[in-house]
Each structure stands twice: as structure tokens, then as C-alpha cells.
Amino acid sequence: MCGIVGAVSQRNIVPILIEGLKRLEYRGYDSCGVAVHQDGELKRARSTSRVAELHSQTAEDGIASGTGIAHTRWATHGVPAVHNAHPHFSHGPNAAAATAGRIALVHNGIIENHDELRAELKGRGYEFHSQTDTEVIAHLVDHLYHGDLLEAVQQAITRLKGAYAIAVFSRDEPHRVIGAREGSPLVLGVCEQENFLASDAMALAGVTDQIVYLEEGDVVDLQLGRYWISHLDAASNRFETVQREVKTVHAHSGAAELGPYRHYMQKEIFEQPVAIANTLDAITGISPEIFGDGAFSAFKEIDSVLILACGTSYYSGSTAKYWLESIAKIPTSVEIASEYRYRDSVPNERTLVVTISQSGETADTLAALKHARSLGMKHTLTVCNVATSAMVRECQYSFITRAGAEIGVASTKAFTTQLVGLFLLTLALAQARGKLSDEQEAEHLKALRHLPVAVQAVLALEPQVVAWSEAFARKENALFLGRGLHYPIALEGALKLKEISYIHAEAYPAGELKHGPLALVTSEMPVVTVAPNDALLEKLKSNMQEVRARGGELFVFADSDTRIESESGVHVIRMPEHYGALSPILHVIPLQLLAYHTACARGTDVDKPRNLAKSVTVE
């Protein structure tokens, strides 16, 4: 969450900072700001509106410089307000309340010991103008500053507890920006005569494709045409100069262009056939080596799977549990990452720990992974959409989905490509365990290759879903039902609706209706039902009758051969075909469309729902 851009250059970098923020706005949009070194002073503009408004503000205020930092915020400490917006300035003991000091700083993450540091700094005469933990860092750097900004930042971070990525510059040192990271992502963009910092390489698309991914504990010193990276050595407790690989990264700016679509979410829903095709592009057969060298021997050794994930990724893992146990015949547990490391669990060194993350920087999932490793579980694998992410670097094995950049906060194409990756993992584990015949492999591969066409056919149902959305837009509650491996799809459908339309939605296994949720069913409670033609269909039909008997109104996504017909109180959209084990991938598409069009009908901010951000890099 939150986005950082920084630069040191001989040209005016404010347009670059603003453009970078536009591309990072999906990470947080409660407020935004930019600060520069101009005419020997610190100058800034901040806004609780969107980055476009900040652009106008910088132009009106004449803000221009070759050294600066910028930030787009998702609030953790302090309400979304201008005084809490980044960048923050230091206000030293000798500075008047209205006069900025010499340090400007932006920060992603959470500082856990900010209260004690705040008390100490107040005692030293520092004035606080915000409720944020970030302002504490600015004052701390100012307190430790004695003419060398790098030295001050190095000393400061040794006193911080928590997660952070920071970018900071001083009034007294033009053409110098210091960056540091611990637990939150930060990259360095390298050019011949200028250097950049960003939370994501996409922010620097069109500026540079030479990217250095900073490691945990790195501090980078940016100056004109040069940079140095230092790292705190735990053994000596000293910072030592290190070298990090410069990678060529093609972060296409076109990924952030909306094109003919109304919202990014709509664009990304309709990109799913291509995203799935790209994810499957290099798959010519099933082999554990799809996930990395040595995977076959590891897969032969394991006897269980532990999946760690959050949010939408948790629901993809919950779907995969059904595949792994029914096809690969391997015991599988799925844990919410933020809960897993805070409870006593029973480790098993023969477990394959699988993490799922769109960004590969999800703080809770990274922490859960490290916890699992600390318990002796060495076999680790991630399904992730970003090949250069921390998650990929931390795991032995990986499968990189090729969904492309996903800007809308509510995940769509990242989810379906995760499911594709997890299905491939299921088949690879089945093969390694002797549970997959050649005929079964060929059958599954045929279904996977047809999947983009099948998804395209489901997308053609959009006009029918739009008609339903008008009715949903007038509701404040909704219930979603599914059975078997479609129960997690019902959960995902409910999550999408609540995320972007703000309608309270819950999902249940349909068999649980009579154990409580049925008390909620009235004519005002729409009940969305995922109805594939599988072994549980007849049971599901009985559950639907329970809803109708209480006056509930059903909205059913039914496979074509289920013999579920529209009638009074029962609305049916017929899916093009039943797709066997891969049916969840098809059935989630209309649920995405339903959430999207309901949100449009209610007039909400679809791509940037309130209180949420795309990349959750804080715990």
C-alpha cells in the first residue's frame, strides 16, 4: 500500500514524479503529495484529491526542481487529511511552528515503536503536525543529521521497528536522495545522468528500464549520475557497501492505459482470455520442472501441502484444495496468512508450503512464509504475478502467472490466472505421485488449451448480467451460495460485490443454509447461486427450494444442462458449457461482471473503492 517516487536529475523532475504517482495510485489514493528542493528551500504540494488535482496544484504553485520525492497514500495512522499527507517535513526544536525544517520524507509501511520515538522527540523540542508514524521518522533523521544525510538515515533506521520503505532528502544537500527499505518494496531506476526511486518499476516506465530491486535492509544513496547501496551486516552491526544486479525490466506504460473501457476493472475482466492464454503459453506438457529445477525430487518427497494467502488469493487457494485432494490425492490445508504465524501449529518438514500473491509483496503472506520456514518447512513454492517480487526470491520454486499489470483494486484476471497456475501444480503433483495417467494428462491439457475460448463465451453473457445489476443496485444485502469446489467461488463473488458496490454480501456452502443463514432470507435478500452440473447439483436444487419456500429471490448461474428454469422468483443465466474440474474459472467470470455492473449502477468508484488499496504491504 502507498506509492513512492523519487528522483535526482539536472532536469525538472516534477512531471516524472506526478506521472509515476498516477501509475501507483492503485496502491493508495487517500491523499497524495510532492516535495522538491527549490531555491535552497523545501517546497511541497499536498492534496486529499486524486493525483490529477495535485498536478494542477504543482503547476499553479510553480513547483519545479531536479530533486524531489512524491507519494500517494493509503492511510494507516491518521485520517485522510492534508496535514497527514506525505511528504512530511521535519520541524526541529529551533524551527517556528509554521516553518518547515530541513528534512523531507515519504514512507510506506508501519513503524511499530512510533509512540516511544514521538515521546522522545517531543522531549527534544520537536513539533508534530500530523497523526502519522511517518513524521516521527522525519524528525528522527533531522535529530541525527550532522551534515551527512546518508549517515543520518543509516542511524535512524537502526532505531525503527516495523516495516518501511522511505525516500528522504535534505534542504542542505541538493541533488541527493536517500532511500531505504525493510519489509516494503522499493526499487532503484538507473540512468546515465539521473537516478530514481519507486515502489514499483511500472512507475518508471518510459523513464528507464534499468532497475535494481533493493533487498531487505538496503540503503541507497542517489546522486547525479551515480549511486551507492549499503546494507547493515548483522554480524558486525555495520553498514557495508554492496552490489546489486541491474535488471532490464520492460514495465510497459500501456498497461496503465484505460483504452475503450469505462474502468480498469472492466478492462481486466475482458483481458482474462488473453491473460490465461499467456499464462499457458509455454506449457507443452505437465512436469514438476514447470515450477523450477529440482521440483520433481521435492514433489516426490512431500506428503502434504500448506497454502498461505490473503483475500482473493486465499479463495484461489481454497479452490485448489479441492483439486489437490481429489486429483493429486495429497492432504492440503489452506491458512489465512495473517492468522497462521500467530497460532501454534504442527510443522511437518515434508510439507510443500505454497504462497499465493498477485504482487509478491503481500506483507502478511511473506511473514507467514518466513514463519513456516523457521519451523523447518524447507519446501516452498509461490504462485505469483510478478517475477521480480520478494515472494519469488524467497521461495525455492515458483510459477509466474502472466496476467499483466492489474490496476483495479478488486482482483479479476490475477485470480483466474492463479487458478490456472494452481491447477497446473495439482497436475504436476499428481504426476510425481503416480496419480496422473497419460490419458488424464492429455484430457486436462486439452481442457486448459480450450479455456480462453470458454472464458470468451462466458464474457458474452454481460448484457444479461447488466439487467440483473439494476435490481442488485437497490439492495443492501446479498447472499451467495455454492457447493464443493464452487463454494470458494461463491466466497469470491461475495467479496467482489462488497468491495466495490458496498453492498453487504456473505457466502455460505449451500448445505449450511438451514443451520443459520436461512433466517436472513426474505424477498429483500437476493440469493446468488453458483449451479454447475456436478455431483452436488441435486443437493443444491434442494437448497434452492429452501430459499424459495421462504420467499427468497434466486439469481442462478446454471450450466446449460442443469434443467434449472426461470420462473417467478427464480432468475437464471445459462452458462455456455460445463467445464468439469476447471468449472470454477468459468463460474467466477459472471460474478465479477455482476459486482462490476452493480457498482456502476450505484455510482461508486469502481477501481478505487473506499478504504482499500491494491498492494497490501503492511500487516
What are the defining features of this structure?
619 residues, alpha/beta, 7-stranded antiparallel beta sheet, 34% helix, 24% strand
- The tally of helices reads 18
Largest sheet: number of strands, sense, barrel closure: 8 strands, antiparallel
Structural class: alpha/beta
Instruction: Count all strands and give the number.
Output: 25
Beta strand %: 15-25%
Low-confidence stretches: none
Instruction: Please give the alpha-carbon distance between the first and last residues.
Output: 10 Å
Give the helix/strand layout:
Elements: E1 3-8, H1 14-24, E2 31-38, E3 41-47, H2 51-61, E4 67-73, E5 88-89, E6 103-111, H3 114-123, H4 134-144, H5 149-157, E7 162-170, E8 176-182, E9 187-190, E10 195-198, E11 210-213, E12 218-223, E13 226-233, E14 238-242, E15 246-248, H6 264-270, H7 272-280, H8 295-301, E16 304-309, H9 311-326, E17 332-336, H10 337-340, E18 351-357, H11 363-374, E19 379-384, H12 390-394, E20 397-400, H13 413-432, H14 438-459, H15 462-472, E21 477-482, H16 487-501, E22 504-509, E23 526-531, H17 537-549, E24 553-559, E25 570-575, H18 583-602
Parallel strand pairs: 16-17, 16-18, 18-19, 19-20, 21-22, 21-23, 23-24, 24-25
Antiparallel strand pairs: 1-4, 1-10, 2-3, 2-4, 5-6, 6-7, 7-8, 8-12, 9-10, 9-11, 11-15, 12-13, 13-14
Describe the structure.
- With 619 residues, the chain is an alpha/beta fold.
- It contains 18 helices and 25 strands.
- It has an 8-stranded antiparallel sheet, with helices on one face.
- Strand 16, helix 9 (311-326) and strand 17 form a beta-alpha-beta unit.
- Helix 3 (114-123) crosses helix 4 (134-144).
- The longest helix has 22 residues, at 438-459.
- The radius of gyration is 26 Å and the shape is globular.
- The model has no long low-confidence stretch (mean pLDDT 90).
